[in-house]
Amino acid sequence: QVQLVESGGGLVQPGGSLRLSCAASGFTVGRYQMRWYRQGSGKERELVAFISTGGSTGYTEFVKGRFTISRDNAKNTMYLQMNSLKPEDTAVYYCKSTGHNYWGQGTQVTVSS
Questions:
Q1: For residue 104, is pLDDT > 90?
Q2: Minimal CA–CA distance to 35: which of 5, 19, 57?
Q3: Which residue spans within 1-113 are E strands per DSSP?
Q4: CA-to-CA distance for 34 and 38, rounded, in angstroms?
Q5: pLDDT in tens, 12-50
Q6: Could you give the CA distance from residue 105 to residue 34 in angstroms, rounded to a whole number?
Q7: What is each CA distance from 38 to 27, 41, 75, 77, 80, in whole angstroms?
Q8: Contact between 50 and 37 (Cβ < 8 Å)
């Protein structure tokens, strides 16, 4: 049974940092491209970053240079290190495997002073 559990969100001031985690079960994260998405209030869900099976990464222009995606195959977990956070980064963040049509509940990130 596929399951994804996102965690690590919270309230942070502009310029602050958070690290999100995505714990997977029912499949091996290293065998699929894994992605982080986000959805702000009243907005469509958008791709934030991805990590391929070979470890190559990609980022949307809005987060490039500030966010870092990584993966720990031994823990079957993916991460998103978010630095220099801005109010426009406020959203619910979701992780997803390209090989499975499953969405977790997401984790809320709020950037506000």
A1: no
A2: 57
A3: 3-7, 10-12, 18-25, 34-39, 46-51, 57-59, 67-72, 77-82, 91-97, 107-111
A4: 14
A5: 999 999 999 999 999 999 999 999 999 999 999 999 999
A6: 16
A7: 22, 10, 23, 18, 12
A8: no
